[in-house]
Amino acid sequence: MRIGEIARRSGVSVRALRYYEEQGLLVPGRSPGGQREYSQDAVQTVRAIQQLYAAGLSSRRVAELLPCMDTGTTTDHQRAMLKAERDRIRAQIKELTATLARLDELVDAADRRGS
Amino acid sequence: MRIGEIARRSGVSVRALRYYEEQGLLVPGRSPGGQREYSQDAVQTVRAIQQLYAAGLSSRRVAELLPCMDTGTTTDHQRAMLKAERDRIRAQIKELTATLARLDELVDAADRRGS
DNA sequence: CTAGAATCTCACGTGGACGTGAGGTGCAAG
DNA sequence: CTTGCACCTCACGTCCACGTGAGATTCTAG
User: Fold this and answer.
1) CATH topology (fold) of A1-73
2) Which residue among A7, A37, B17, B107 is least packed, with the fewest CB closer than 10 Å?
3) pLDDT tens per residue across span A1-47
4) How confident is the model at residue A70 (pLDDT cuts 50, 70, 90)?
5) Is the CB of A34 under 7 A from strand D?
6) Are strands A29-30 and B29-30 parallel, antiparallel or unpaired?
7) Which residues, numbered 41 to 100 in chain A, qualify as contacts with chain B under a Cβ-Cβ cut-off of 8 Å?
8) B29 has which bridge partners?
9) Angle ∠(A6,A7,A8) on CA atoms, nearest 5
10) Is the pLDDT assigned to residue B46 strictly greater than 70?
11) Where are the domains of chain B?
């Protein structure tokens, strides 16, 4: 598959896919003419990248963690990073939950006055 | 209180506080000599700003929502924004939870192999 | 064979939340 | 009165995940 179809199927821009290659996250093959050739499971990789970005990981972290998302095998270094990121995400969820509660209070108070 | 003490008490930089003023989020008074004079509850406001930033809100949104975080009263526009942001945050928590589960699986699999 | 998509490689632009000097002023202490 | 730290105002720099042309090449349909 060429870059345009991967872009459509995964919902990211063509530019983003080239950027991922630049960062070493998803490096496709090349056609004789020099065009990028993606395999089927590239779509899944893109989704994983997006998911990790959304969780606040940097390109560097994603590059270090993507291999074990594919293979399921981890080095000691990767396991340490995984646990660190887990903790970060857990803390983030906790804080978001608190923020949500605070906003809920505001809305509820407004609803009560409004009724 | 002057800017340095607010910075220490709230854990943000002096530059950040000046930036908040620039964005209209937290506008302190001025001493005769032109120095910023913050009230006691500025610390709480700073924490609120940080919390909203951490939840992914822009300065503009924070500026629109900070008043009702203080007073507890909301306009229709603010209530609509509150509900929209709540939904966004809820979705964000959901996605983070899924990501967390995925990382947990990886760590668990690695732990089982390691034991 | 040719028109026109689609893709290619530079390479500069963007937006947001500040960081970081440069050069000048306010204020409490000795 | 002066030392010296905290504060002031510009104003350019930073980081990151791309956006956005410009100009050239490749691929596909007729």
Assistant:
1) Multidrug-efflux Transporter Regulator; Chain: A; Domain 2 (1.10.1660)
2) A37
3) 999 999 999 999 999 999 999 999 999 999 999 999 999 999 999 99
4) confident
5) yes
6) unpaired
7) 51-52, 54-55, 68-69, 72-74, 79, 82-83, 85-86, 89-90, 92-93, 95-100
8) B37
9) 90
10) yes
11) 1-73, 74-115
